[in-house]
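Model the whole thing, not chain by chain.
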Amino acid sequence: MPRKPIVTATIERLEILSPDGSVDEALLPELSGEDMVGLYREMVRMRAYDEKAVKLQRQGRMGTWAPLKGQEAPQAALALAMEPEDWLIPAFREHGIMLARGVPGHVLYAYWAGDERGSAFPEDVRVFPIPVPVGSQFAHGAGVGMSLALRGEPGVAVTFGGDGATSEGDFHEALNFAGVFRARTIFVIQNNQWAISVPREKQTAAETLAQKAVAHGIPGIQVDGNDVFAVHVAAREALDRARSGEGPTLIEAVTYRLGDHTTADDAGRYRDPEELARWQERDPIPRMRRFLEARGLWDEQQELVLTDEATAWVEAQVEALEAMPAPDPADIFRYMYAEMPASLREQMEELREEVSS
Amino acid sequence: MPRKPIVTATIERLEILSPDGSVDEALLPELSGEDMVGLYREMVRMRAYDEKAVKLQRQGRMGTWAPLKGQEAPQAALALAMEPEDWLIPAFREHGIMLARGVPGHVLYAYWAGDERGSAFPEDVRVFPIPVPVGSQFAHGAGVGMSLALRGEPGVAVTFGGDGATSEGDFHEALNFAGVFRARTIFVIQNNQWAISVPREKQTAAETLAQKAVAHGIPGIQVDGNDVFAVHVAAREALDRARSGEGPTLIEAVTYRLGDHTTADDAGRYRDPEELARWQERDPIPRMRRFLEARGLWDEQQELVLTDEATAWVEAQVEALEAMPAPDPADIFRYMYAEMPASLREQMEELREEVSS
Amino acid sequence: MSSTIHEARRTAGPAGEAAVTEKVTIATAVRDALALEMERDPRVIVMGEDVGVNGGVFRATEGLLERFGPERVLDTPLAEDGIIGTAVGMAMTGLRPVAEIQFMGFVYPAVNQLLAHMARIRNRTRGRFHAPMVVRMPYGGGIHAPESHSESYEAMFLNAPGIKVVVPSTPRDTRGLLASAIRDEDPVVFLEPKRIYRAFREEVPVEPFTIPLGVASIPHPGEQVTLVAWGAMVRVCLEAARALEREGISAEVVDLRTLNPLDRDTLLESVRKTGRCVVVHEAPRTAGFGAELVALINEHALLDLEAPVQRVTGFDTVFPYARLEHHYLPNRDRVLRAVKKTFEF
Amino acid sequence: MSSTIHEARRTAGPAGEAAVTEKVTIATAVRDALALEMERDPRVIVMGEDVGVNGGVFRATEGLLERFGPERVLDTPLAEDGIIGTAVGMAMTGLRPVAEIQFMGFVYPAVNQLLAHMARIRNRTRGRFHAPMVVRMPYGGGIHAPESHSESYEAMFLNAPGIKVVVPSTPRDTRGLLASAIRDEDPVVFLEPKRIYRAFREEVPVEPFTIPLGVASIPHPGEQVTLVAWGAMVRVCLEAARALEREGISAEVVDLRTLNPLDRDTLLESVRKTGRCVVVHEAPRTAGFGAELVALINEHALLDLEAPVQRVTGFDTVFPYARLEHHYLPNRDRVLRAVKKTFEF
Ligand SMILES: Cc1ncc(C[n+]2csc(CCOP(=O)(O)OP(=O)(O)O)c2C)c(N)n1
Ligand SMILES: Cc1ncc(C[n+]2csc(CCOP(=O)(O)OP(=O)(O)O)c2C)c(N)n1
Ligand SMILES: [Mg+2]
Ligand SMILES: [Mg+2]
């Protein structure tokens, strides 16, 4: 028994919808026309919401914003695949799916406008707050997946992260915990090719990010992340697996950040414009529109209506944002503990006097 | 182009020397009889050194000790495969290879006897101090491998760790850095089946630890860690690869901790005696002795001489340990900075007065 | 573990006889508190390295696995960030995890989860979420341990707002404070003085009880000098107080018990009364929590001071290995010398 | 970056004319110090997230990659523990890494490497090894950043012995102190006040120079009250000192510049002279480094005090997001109120 293979791990890549709008019919998920159109509408709404935020930032009406443009497909696909009982544990570029899962648009805007009330989601919204330290949310996802099982509640934890985040040790510890405890958790990596200025190839010598699952004995799959159907199929499988107690899955959605890292960044400093152009051709939204039009599920007229709707909805979010009363300085103290200790009350009083003087 | 495999990773297992002493001649490394005997002698010396320490601890002449018994093969094999220019970055159960790489026996004993001088290795000994936080040494190994290349020095960094340590995020960050920068580093995991009371199966859902390399795009291999030839072959390959600039390798040496976790532990609380018995049959030392005897390289007479030699050598280390002058309390302060700041000098004086009063 | 509690229970008889007590060590008190709270509240779970089958390297979780099963007593992989990170996710969704860090020196890999998440969930979400969890860790020196096994870096958790920090010094306090910590709606770091895990026994009620967080105790009242400490150093102060008594000096020992919330009033009242104060802790002096106590006394009781507050602490060095650790750790004589200074000022 | 240095060089002429200066910001001073030290010593390398191609998110490493190549300017994977851990391995084997942590709020994942290793290598090996490395990180609030981008938790590094901590407040100090930090044989955490990275320019010698670690400066001498600060808060104190001047009160501003080693003498001398002291820092009050300063003053200058030392600090809360941060950060008026208290005591 000399030198022999003992483990063979294969990573598959799934693609269904081509950039030209054609599909692999055999793999197309069984979705109603309504659902398909719904996916498109979600993506368009996400983009409108995102583009507006970038504009607001330029006008000084918004803080630093992390554009999601180009990454709508994984977010729309997951939103559709998830059940109401499921939990979303986002990173910081998941505006789209956060909205889709019930976070009010003006609330999320408030977060990026520098207001903690922007993480005070309604009680029935099963979405975690934005975690700023990259990679630190994965363990929360594993914990939620474990917690649901331990408490005998239904639901799956869906955790998002970026390609850069897969280099943090936290990511691996989380996947390992999820594997060991067969957590009802799925990990979605939006591999948008860049972690600020660091390209995917410098982030790891691994050929794919999906294969990082192999380290933890859990399934991993790569999908075209600009192909909403491919992501949907992989998500469905992973969610089903988790829901039936078969444990976690890692999904690598290969996509692209069409915008800057944040509004404080200038991607032109480190990114080849040709690369950007190539990815613009693979934009998930026109691709899906071509598909819907080819199927007779969409036309120019509907597009016009949708654009108007999306714009109106986004404007309403901006209005609601700007109608929020200024935050109360006392809020700095109010939520530190269940009950405010005396020393903190004193500090709050100091500030109150200062503000009123 | 629908659902297709894009990455296939295979983990091989290498075995050469069977527990009964027979070998796979085709795979047997080209080692001189002297080297083969040398491997055996090293292992016997390691065990004598280790067993003595456990006895000393029971007699109150040694602090907590972490027995290496059963794990001699990876340490002897690596010691032989390494070049003088190479660096060893151990975890805490690598007494054997530390000695083999030039750490004086009484110095290492001093460490475990609770004396910092036990990490003051001679200047020409390329061995890092023992890192207590599990998993934290891997990054040092990656850094040394990078540093050697950047400074244009020859040498490879050889980093050791346990099965438990592969769950720490540090391990993954280190492998990832090594992969990205093609560090001249090899990572040797002594998978001794247990991390204190936690068995390998609860540590990770991965079938092997070698496959954790896949996450970082570097080669990984599993070897019978009680088979000194198998480890030697894998080590040689990995060292050659690193030395020639082809990057890092992960080696999982499957072995067993025949003793307790430390002298403060009682493995009987969590370990099946039958498991222990099974592994005792796979002990690396009798196995090698059978092989050498079958080849006519070893006999009873030589064994008796070796036993005496090893005992005498170990006794000399104990004597040297016990002949060390008591540590100077001022040493607490002396090595904190290159130059002692005034505030620390004051504290040292305070202590001096106290000690002399 | 079950034996202790079960037998004692049996002797306890009908409800109401809550005065039934048992002589236990701090280690046993930890175990009993965990068992009682797990019994009381199904949301409480215990997790960490070696806490299950092995019952913890200090046996502080012994018997829990047998009693509550592997769903509530989790032997985790060796990954502190993973332990605290998953616990945060659990605490945010309805569980009350009690996570163990095997030694305080191994908490560093978890600092990100503790300081950037656990401490901030309530504030970050303006109360939408909170993280009711306890992170237990044995801390401090005196057990002849290898490097990283004697750490006492509580100051780190005290400068990072949002974490309650509790350090018991007796079996009774351990039982009552750990119960409070587990029932608390905020995250608590619970530091266990491993040096005195088994140093002595104390009569402790068998039935569940709590001791509120944020209330210091005065195990040795006195008039002329205040000795302030927590955890294992309380005993050092008590020894000093008894020695002082023999010299006719009346020392008051204040055991802070919880460092956040801090019982400032008890501390200040004592110092105002005595006019002299010695603060004792194991951590290095510079930027240790003792500095904060001195600063508070400076701010609120400066004019009451007869002499500068003295600090008796670890040195500003790495905690030494076994052979030198006794030189490092504050002891009775060092406290006595500091007291002398406050009288000779 | 090369442009700045190169052009200035050209105008510098023959050796000896070391007085040639250039007006630069703190951010430029960081860059220039790195470039000069890299030129001087081939062992110096720069590493971190986005430090290469992008020149750092604050442009503090701009141009270094072009000038020194990818072997000495390493864009690393996104992993702080990996950055510091590999840097420790490098520093122990002959390199002098200058590692960047993108924001102080992201240093937590690296705390294990910083506190358990970097700080202790020399002591652990009784001098056989040491870790001459610098960990740069922008710290502090005031730039309207999202959560975790405004941290100021220096106290953590000061209670853990073995780490030098440097915080410049001007471009000139930045150049001189960073050069010293890089040449130092011990590990240094170098905190850069990001709020004032580009707030003002100062004439700085073009040629390499150093400012010794452990020496405070007195940017505003005075007689009646001492204002102590470091980093961005020095400017707040200077504003306050100027306002006090207009009221006829003479304030002395002490800029500590390095927190470890600490220039205790300069601080104490000033307090002994003025009898009044206000300590200002951004970090939360409780267990912040200000407490240590108060404790030192208590220990060494109690009888010189006319009033309790006042602390003007961040609150004991999470650093607020942009819309409320101005309420949190110490400002001139808060310092003035504290000064008033010391006069009205
Ligand atoms: C622990 C930590 N380190 C550094 C940062 C600064 N930072 C914010 S986003 C980012 C890049 C993240 O890349 P990736 O994970 O690919 O996500 P993407 O931005 O592409 O969505 C960095 C370095 C951070 N927020 N947290
Ligand atoms: C960060 C950290 N956590 C916990 C510990 C306590 N501890 C010491 S050894 C050990 C188990 C290590 O297991 P493994 O890596 O398999 O090495 P082995 O002991 O089997 O050689 C643990 C949990 C530690 N030293 N460091
Ligand atoms: Mg990315
Ligand atoms: Mg092991």
